[in-house]
Description:
By secondary structure, the chain is an alpha/beta fold. It has helices at 2-9, 17-32, 95-101, 123-130, 132-135, 137-143, 183-195, 247-266, 288-295, 325-332, 356-360, 375-378, 391-411; strands spanning 36-49, 55-59, 66-69, 71-73, 85-92, 109-112, 148-152, 178-181, 200-204, 208-222, 227-237, 273-280, 302-308, 316-322, 345-348, 364-370. The strands form two sheets. An eight-stranded mixed β-sheet has the order 1-10-12-11-13-16-14-15. Helix 10 (325-332) links the parallel strand 14 (316-322) and strand 15. Helix 8 (247-266) crosses helix 13 (391-411). Bound molecules: zinc ion. Residues 237, 249-250, 283, 310 line the site of zinc ion. Zinc ion is lined by residues 237, 249-250, 283, 310.
Amino acid sequence: MLRELTGKIGARVSGSPQAAAAVQWGKRTLESKGFANVHLETVMVPHWVRGKGERAMLISPNKARKVPLSILALGGSPATPTGGITAEVIEVHSLDEVKELGEKVKGKIVFYNRPMNPTFPSTFDAYGDAGDQRFSGPAVAAKAGASAVLVRSLTFALDDVPHTGATVLAKGGPNVPSAAVSTIGANLLSEKLKQSPNIRVQLTLNCQTLPDVESANVVGEIVGSELPGEVIVVGGHLDSWDVGQGAHDDGAGVVQSIEAVSLMKRLGLRPKRTVRVVLFMDEENGGRGAAGYAAAPRPGEKCIAGMESDSGGFAPRGFGVDGKPEVVNNIARWAYLLETIGADKIAPGGADADVEPLIAKGAVGIGLIPESQRYFDYHHSHSDTIDKVNPRELELGAIAMSILLYVIAQEGV
Ligand SMILES: [Zn+2]
């Protein structure tokens, strides 16, 4: 399944023809696995396109030569004017620093260069800790009068691969062209700035935000034998960023969710409660699929739990559970069933964006926690391709999900 999704369709950012193909693929796949009630639930999604020819050139003071920096525009970024923006660069390490600099950032390219903190054992914690630079940094710099923003890629890998991702645009503006720069590029830029603070960068981005497009979540299920109105949702997100193949993020979670439920069918297990696969659209670019699914009226049913796999297709280590302490403890009772495959760590917290709206409506959120050390080497970049996914690790994750889903479908939360 992952070979089809990544190989035949590839990168599939919200609103793109590839995302539309992924929806059709999802529907066909759920039907071919014999799921019940397979259907699409439409949602309107943003349609941002990168455009061709984006680049950043470091211009040395004597203008003798230009050195290219590897960049990727951040999702949702506006374009630069034709010919790009050429400006001096000011390096910062926090959003507060931009606010303190005040007037000094006017007209400059603000360069956020605080690396992910390597002392966090979980790379997701390091990502969360450094992520404000990408999520909020551009809007903060724009408000302070910056002309553009460069952000150090959120990865521990020291290489020349830039990592894109969402940035939160200021409603009503101002918003400025914003791009992620590779860690090697960031180090180079920082070094050059120390040598000559007046160095300039020419940034050219050709992104466009087009009108919203109709897209869909893909839904299919096994109807519960005794309590069909009690539903356990399991899913990943069908969309990805527009580079690489979206193999770990989140092709892995999509195929694991399908496989986890398909395994029950192949074993002839009919759960007491309904187990429903939802392939969410638009996680990366706005979360419209998750919001749309949770907001839809579903008379006579109650979603008791939402399980998500959106942390990569690496070897499973356990699950994070978002719920009351007694619920976390209840679910942790089943850890022994996951011991054989080493996925028996069940801890509070850790459910992800697509189940958040379900948690807000009272469901227990559950997130698969895989080994995290290599995820951000590939995340949101040209490197997120299927050759980075180990089939056995991917399958073990699906098995772990299947075990926990089935026991919850039998015993409740
Ligand atoms: Zn994801």
